[in-house]
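User: Reviewer 2 asked us to show a designed sequence for the structure in our supplementary figure. I'm pasting the structure tokens here. Could you produce the per-position amino acids so we can include them in the response letter?
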């Protein structure tokens, strides 16, 4: 995917609209099993507020932190209007992100980054939460393989900065590998000062084999369990990774 061609922007806006369509007419009091303590109302409120925060950063090219609580999301009082409210955030977000050079530096919670960081973050935030909604509604999540593969890389990029930052993702060269039948694969290597990752077909001390890149994405975000997949090698190493990357 190429941020210079606006692909993240368009994919994000499209995913927002498709999720809104999925949610219209649904019972939003349904719990979301993959987000313990949330129901669909809370999922929509969280996601739509995030879109509006990103819109402010992009529109104004903010250089200073923008706390969530400083942005009024305009959430309707009637949950029956939540899906429309979610959809209404798509066009302003797309317009704000597309109005400037994607390389323009702005504030992000990982430090100063190109504006394309927000396009990519909103795409994958929406993609994962759309999967949460599908699971809550009893649907099978459907994620484009190119989007899923980029989403894995994006997660590994932001992991060291997240406020749920794992405590022990270090090691002495141990490698964890996730490989899909579609040819998408990632290799993570642990070092004393952190980890690196690369797209790779190489196995590791532990290797997880899945059908698709979407499976890898949902595994790494904790939306699926490893018991449903083939795990070869050091299960303790994988358990340590999972324990220290759980939100």
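Assistant: Here is a per-position design you can include in the supplement:
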């Amino acid at each position: 995917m190429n941020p210079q061609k606006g692909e993240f922007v368009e994919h994000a806006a499209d995913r927002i609209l498709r999720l809104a369509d999925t949610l219209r007419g649904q019972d939003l009091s349904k719990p979301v099993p993959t987000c313990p303590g949330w129901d669909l109302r809370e999922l929509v409120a969280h996601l739509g507020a995030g879109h509006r925060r990103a819109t402010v950063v992009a529109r104004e090219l903010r250089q200073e932190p923008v706390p969530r609580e400083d942005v009024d999301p305009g959430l309707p009082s009637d949950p029956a209007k939540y899906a429309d409210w979610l959809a209404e955030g798509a066009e302003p977000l797309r317009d704000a992100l597309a109005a400037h050079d994607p390389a323009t530096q702005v504030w992000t919670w990982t430090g100063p980054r190109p504006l394309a960081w927000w396009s990519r973050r909103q795409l994958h935030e929406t993609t994962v939460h759309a999967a949460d909604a599908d699971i809550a509604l009893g649907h099978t999540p459907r994620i484009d393989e190119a989007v899923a593969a980029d989403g894995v890389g994006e997660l590994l990029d932001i992991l060291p900065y997240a406020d749920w930052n794992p405590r022990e993702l270090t090691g002495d060269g141990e490698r964890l590998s996730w490989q899909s039948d579609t040819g998408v694969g990632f290799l993570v290597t642990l070092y004393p000062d952190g980890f690196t990752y690369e797209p790779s077909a190489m196995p590791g001390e532990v290797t997880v084999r899945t059908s698709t890149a979407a499976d890898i994405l949902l595994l790494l975000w904790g939306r699926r369990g490893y018991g449903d997949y083939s795990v070869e090698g050091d299960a303790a190493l994988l358990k340590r990774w999972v324990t220290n990357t759980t939100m």
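For the response letter, you might also mention the following. Strands lie at 105-106, 113-114, 175-180, 185-191, 194-199, 206-210, 230-233. The chain has a mean pLDDT of 95.
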